[in-house]
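User: Structure with protoporphyrin IX containing FE, tokens only please.
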Amino acid sequence: MIWTVLLLVHALLLYFILRHRSRSRNEPPLDKGLIPWLGHALEFGKDASKFLERMKRKHGDIFTVRAAGRYVTVLLDPHSYDQVIHDQDCLDFHSYAKVLMERIFQLRLPNHEPAKEKAVMTQHFLGMNLCGLNSSMSRHMLEVAKAEMPQNQKDWKEDGLFNLSYSLLFKVGYLTLFGGEQNNNCSDLASIYEEYKKFDGLLTKMARGTLKSYEKKTAQSARQRLWELLAPARLAKGSGSTPWLHAYRRLLREEGVDNEMQTRALLLQLWATQGNVGPAAFWMLGYLLTHPEALTAVKTEMEALQLSPLDSSVVTPVFDSALDEALRLTAAPFITREVLQDKVLHMADGQQYLLRKGDRVCLFPFISPQMDPEIHQEPQKYMFNRFLNEDGSVKKDFYKGGRRLKYYSMPWGAGANGCVGKQFAISTMKQYIYVLLTNYDLELCDPCALMPGVNASRYGFGMLQPEGDLLVRYRPRQKL
Ligand code: HEM
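Assistant:
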């Protein structure tokens, strides 16, 4: 027994000696944390924003931290972001995406060609096809709103704004992109959303591999149920499928993906297309309702529209600024890339740092530019007209260190891997807010209510979600 223990201790020591890492010349400051292997993983996972702010105060705009055996270099100077965003030779978007695909969705696509998938997305979510998608989305928006927020109701109805926005937009998005009409009835749609919410609630823990055993069971059963519920969408033929889904399924078949993996891929797409829009719409509407002058400005602009807000000739600068401001405060993705080969990173201030092959590099625009007090005055405050000039035109001039910034807010990422669904997502939110503000009376249950705080475990995973909800009440507007 004693020999086994000694052998184990020696093996562990050898492991740590071989894996020992120290900072080399020209490398960013290295902060391994106190716990071997785990490093800063716990603090990172608990509240990444707070942790990275602390590291920034300690080390500056670039540093490398250890988390669960991996070394991640974090870059927080927006003037230097192009060095990461535009280097597709040394830095790779897909390796880390693949890790998450497997951890969260149990999805393995060995012959997957990301460029082909991207081409399918681009073809269906941008350009001419976007118009078709928008009109299908608008139609479903009216249908779902009618069903969930009845026109004939006289009395106020109460709900949490997050719950209302996420569930309604999820259903609209599902019907638009997954073509549920023929495949699913209403109760299936409600079940898909219920299971999806359970799954989404555990998503960050799945990504970090920190599920407790009872949570593992819940995640597994929600995933399994979603696979079953999505199977009809995988099988749908002709008019039961939407053009995007049809093209995506064809690509999977061409890549030799079997039926089971195809269904898992659909769940990934369901989350990728629905995971951010509902929460983003919630934040925007929540900020409007808690800032009456912003609500009046957006309402006035919307009520004056002669055409649909999605008509290409319609401009909505007030809405656009109010949305950009909500996203500045609540979009918090990590832009993560795997370092495929050693790379010298040239910072805008003239410093050079070596990034090691096998490490990851991560931008966190939430800290800077979005919440950087040098760029945005009183960054914690919601100012609906922050992105408007005095003459009402779009404001694009923001500065840091006396230099004009290319990136002053980055909710959609940037460069070659920037968000393909941006236009569609904006149209969906615009239509939702238009329908709500022009067809319904909508107000806070408690006129003094404040916006709820954020669920700090979601920093790094796209749009933030609230801790709790904001109670609102609504009823159809009386036609004058
Ligand atoms: C408010 C809503 C949304 C937000 C805030 C958002 C944000 C983002 C961000 C930050 C990225 C870049 C990730 C990176 O560089 O590492 C991204 C990528 C992407 N987004 Fe979105 N997104 C939203 C909605 C959507 C929708 C509705 C779709 C699809 C219909 C979509 C499809 C994609 C795709 C396909 C990529 C990856 C692009 C690539 O492979 O190069 N997104 N999104």
